[in-house]
Automatic annotation (TrEMBL):
Origin superkingdom: Bacteria
InterPro entries assigned to the protein according to its UniProt record, in alphabetical order: Phage_T5_Orf172_DNA-bd
Name of this chain's protein: Bacteriophage T5 Orf172 DNA-binding domain-containing protein
Alphabetized SMART domains for the sequence: T5orf172 (SM00974)
Span of domain Bacteriophage T5 Orf172 DNA-binding: 14-91
Naturally occurring in which organism (per UniProt): Methylobacterium bullatum
């Protein structure tokens, strides 16, 4: 008898919602149907990844822990579907999130904070409170710092991947590098 398989999934509203549910199920599409009952907006399965049945609970907990800073309630997180999928896929494959994904989360949070502050109520075209200007400037500086760090890490990761591909190509050719 074959061992049961489970999946980690990311489900969210179809469209531009930035809240997703991250969970586990043996049938993610069926789970979406169950969650759809009584909802006005259509739900979409953004992605799902197979995991060993015996590890599903642990891996789901790892995904929730990696995103704890953006937890809305229970298994719902305020994160883009794309970033949630990147986290969950990586955790399904490797068992934990890496620094690159954590930095992507911090960058997304800074962008949201900056966006929320930039549309804050104003009075006569001016900020209602001077501390809001300081908060906006701090969020913008943090966003720029994270952009730089993210780009640097992305470049280093790309270089590492290119180097690995070079070695794999040489191994495929059967000759030393």
């Amino acid at each position: 008898m074959a061992k049961a398989r489970s999946y980690l999934y990311v489900i969210g509203e179809d469209g531009n919602s930035d809240e997703v549910k991250i969970g586990r199920s043996i049938d993610p599409v069926g789970r979406r149907s169950t969650l759809q009952v009584g909802r006005g907006r259509k739900l979409k399965v953004h992605g799902y990844w197979p995991v060993p049945f015996d590890d599903a609970v642990t891996l789901e907990a790892a995904a929730h822990a990696a995103l704890h800073e953006v937890r809305v309630k229970g298994e719902v997180f305020a994160v883009s579907p794309e970033l949630a999928c990147a986290f969950v896929e990586h955790i399904a494959q490797h068992g934990a999130a890496d620094d690159f994904l954590r930095l992507g989360l911090a960058k997304e949070r800074a962008e949201r904070r900056w966006g929320a502050l930039s549309i804050a109520p104003s009075s006569g075209g001016r900020w209602a409170k001077p501390e809001m200007v300081a908060a906006l400037e701090a969020a913008e500086a943090e966003m720029k710092r994270l952009d730089h760090e993210f780009f640097s890490m992305d470049r280093a990761r790309a270089d590492k991947i290119d180097s690995s591909r070079h070695w794999l190509d040489k191994l495929d050719e059967g000759c030393p590098a």
